[in-house]
């Protein structure tokens, strides 16, 4: 299966640069995965398409201000550090730009010396392993010095950093937002619960590996990066009871989807657990637990459009994306949504 099988033409002006004032006012394309039929709605209409006894699965991860702008201690050269994955003893796997300015042994200073890091090793694909030194509490310093790590296709400055968080974000650790969840408001979630829909919560800390371009022509040669997940007993039981009672499992975003498909057994049941997943879902994959998916519109040739195509069919998805372009839908993180039924 080729990367080019998932290409579509996307005009640059359709890439959403800013979030809407009302999260739930985004457009919603409803795609029937069996027939390919398409409907156009508004996101807040989602309540009409969820039934009592269904289970909506959301990702409670919280984006940390993972982008740090500093300078090399010896030369004063500007260096940007993006935190990807926390290791032990104040060490992190990071993405550093420009990489040639951050070799092993180099020290980078942030905020007039409030925070420093030294490059200890170079990992795969050039990522740097750095060790931080500071006085005080790391999270408080990061909150003071760090910026939200917006994707590179967003050129405009984000006025309110909370708009790159879901309203239910709770567990800090992501380098990027689970963007399908950005459309929900507290009022919309309350309305969904009042309808009798279960809301199950899990956490998957989103790493930038999810969004890295697929470089291999044959997608089977692509290697996914691992991401940390966790789900507790209460929420696992809520999901399992929904399945036992004949309700549908509806995941909010590809992150919730990848988590559930990583932990479900062959009968589609889950148990409380935590760990790391590098699952890569593409057409031909047999879903064990996920029935429906709420998601955004993704980049051409990305692992995310491959996952969506696995659930809804490649031709259905590419046809839906072509219609989304024709109808001037807004794409990517701050864009509109799709509901695959």
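Q: What amino acid sequence fits the structure above?
A:
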């Amino acid at each position: 299966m080729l990367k080019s099988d998932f290409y579509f033409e996307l005009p640059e002006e359709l890439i959403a640069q800013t979030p809407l004032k009302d999260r739930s006012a985004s457009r919603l394309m409803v795609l029937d995965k069996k027939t390919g039929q398409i409907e156009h709605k508004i996101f807040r209409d989602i309540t009409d398409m969820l039934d009592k006894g269904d289970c909506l699965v959301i990702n409670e991860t919280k984006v940390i201000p993972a982008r740090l702008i500093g300078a090399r201690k010896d030369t004063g050269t500007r260096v940007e550090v993006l935190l990807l994955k926390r290791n032990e003893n104040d060490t992190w796997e990071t993405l550093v730009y420009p990489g040639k300015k951050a070799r092993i042994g180099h020290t980078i200073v942030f905020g007039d010396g409030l925070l420093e890091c030294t490059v200890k090793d170079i990992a795969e694909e050039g990522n740097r392993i750095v060790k931080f030194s500071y006085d005080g509490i790391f999270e408080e310093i990061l909150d003071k010095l760090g910026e939200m790590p917006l994707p590179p296709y967003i050129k405009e400055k984000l006025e309110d950093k909370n708009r790159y968080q879901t309203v239910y974000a709770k567990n800090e650790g992501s380098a990027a937002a689970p963007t399908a969840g950005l459309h929900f408001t507290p009022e919309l979630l309350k309305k969904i619960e009042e309808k009798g829909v279960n809301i199950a919560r899990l956490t998957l800390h989103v790493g930038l590996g999810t969004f890295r371009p697929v470089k291999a022509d044959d997608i089977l040669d692509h290697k996914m990066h691992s991401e940390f997940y966790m789900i507790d007993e209460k929420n696992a039981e809520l999901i399992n009871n929904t399945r036992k009672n004949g309700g549908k499992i509806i995941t909010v975003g590809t992150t919730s989807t990848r988590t559930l498909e990583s932990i479900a057994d062959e009968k589609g049941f889950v148990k409380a657990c935590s760990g790391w997943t590098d699952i890569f879902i593409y057409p031909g994959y047999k879903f064990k637990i996920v029935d429906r998916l709420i998601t955004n519109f993704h980049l051409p040739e990305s692992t995310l459009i491959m996952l969506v195509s696995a659930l809804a069919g490649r031709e259905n998805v590419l046809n839906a994306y072509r219609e989304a372009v024709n109808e001037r839908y807004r794409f990517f993180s701050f864009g509109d949504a799709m509901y695959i039924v």
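Q: And what stands out in the fold?
A: The longest helix spans residues 314-326.
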